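Reopening: structure tokens for the iron/sulfur cluster complex, inputs below.
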Amino acid sequence: MKVYLKTYGCQMNERDSEAVAGMLAARGYEITAQEEDADILIFNTCSVRDQAERKAIGKIGILTRLKRRKPDIYIGIMGCMAQNRGQALLDELPHVDFVIGTGQLHRLPEILAGVIAQRHRELRVEEDHAVLTGMSTHFSRGNRISAYIAVTRGCNRFCSYCIVPYVRGREISREIADIKHEAIELVAQGVREIMLLGQNVAAFGLGGNINPPPPDVSPFADLLTELNDIPGLQRLRFTSPYPSYFNAKLIAAMAALPKVCHSLHLPLQSGSNAILRAMNRHYTAEQYLDIVGQLRRAIPDITFSTDIIVGFPGETETDFLATRRVMNEVGFDNAYIFKYSPRQGTVAATMLDQVPQQIKEERNHILLDDLNRRVAKHNAELRGQIVEVMVEGPSKRNCERWCGRTATNKMTIFDPAPGLEPGDLVQVKITRTTAMSLFGQLTATGGAPV
Ligand code: SAH
Ligand code: SF4
Ligand code: F3S
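Re-run output (same inputs, fresh job):
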């Protein structure tokens, strides 16, 4: 049977889809990118903002027609919205055959087999820690140089706006040895770059305790140190860390380990201390800036990206301007700016002073304009410089040119040379830049002149 798998949401969902595809492929299912060919359609969903849910529900809703035409197909919903809405999805969408929450994904093949054998509808949303160890399979489409590894799952932080702790359950970490084993296997398959994933990734190994450890304790630093030793691996990235876990040990490890990339996604959310407090974010703007300062001193060429929420309940013009100021002070090279979306069941959804949509839109635009101007300027400063790029392959826009990323996560486009392979590290002299990309010429491949 052919399975079509569509993924919404964050990298953790992409990673889960890869694992589910891997498990299904191992049981003889064929994975197809064509919806029309599929016998089974599975939607891996996200609940983080209202729009994310609406997009998936809209898409699944219109499949009633397909199901009428082909009554033998199976339609399933998995992931965060499945966890969040459970039975309501089966009630509202009568053509859906199964709903499988985030804790049951490792059982998906078994549940699917039951649904097919008995032609009944199934709801499975219990939390189960076995999902952590049951999900280390990978399914790769073609040869790839980059892969995700989930090192923690769940979140205990309960930021007041966020639904993730409710839909992903309590935070749990894998064993370092288990993660290293998976990384070594991936490198043997040709992977050169690993992105470590967790909703609260730098809290790895702290047993779910949200309090930051003493300056000399960081199991996450220990994990990075272990993975840095793997021969053939070139780059290590991770997302998303919570600011408070950047203690002396983690910062020193990031600076000392040559494979850890000098680009860090460090969610700020707001630059106003009053809003940070209302968000239940346990740091102030000053503490955030201090961490950025320490990282910059240890790693001078580090670049930062972030997540920002505008229009959180009670956000005044003064609060917003504080966010704008902190963003400019850090000088982020990328930022995901979200308009606050009330999530039922979270504390912030019940706060009284909700901000009008119009103001959310305005604040969103102002921050995006600032960002674009700043990134164009940062990139222009790289003109004439030589940067190291890990080759990805032909550029999507123009396949005669190739692309790759710098360790600071800048997309770089260049003319290829004979013998160049995805995963190679090359030196590129930058000749032109935009806010999106760097353009240049190869100066050397793998250390030797071209
Ligand atoms: N675990 C990650 C965040 C996952 S959600 C972390 O803490 O870094 C990704 C981003 O979505 C968050 O950083 C936040 O900026 C945004 N977000 C979460 N809930 C939101 C909501 N209710 N409305 C708008 N944006 C939200
Ligand atoms: Fe959500 Fe906060 Fe956990 Fe991130 S740390 S997933 S924003 S609750
Ligand atoms: Fe969305 Fe779930 Fe990720 S809610 S952002 S897919 S953890």
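The mean pLDDT is 94. The two ends are 48 Å apart (CA to CA). Marking as resolved unless the reporter disagrees.
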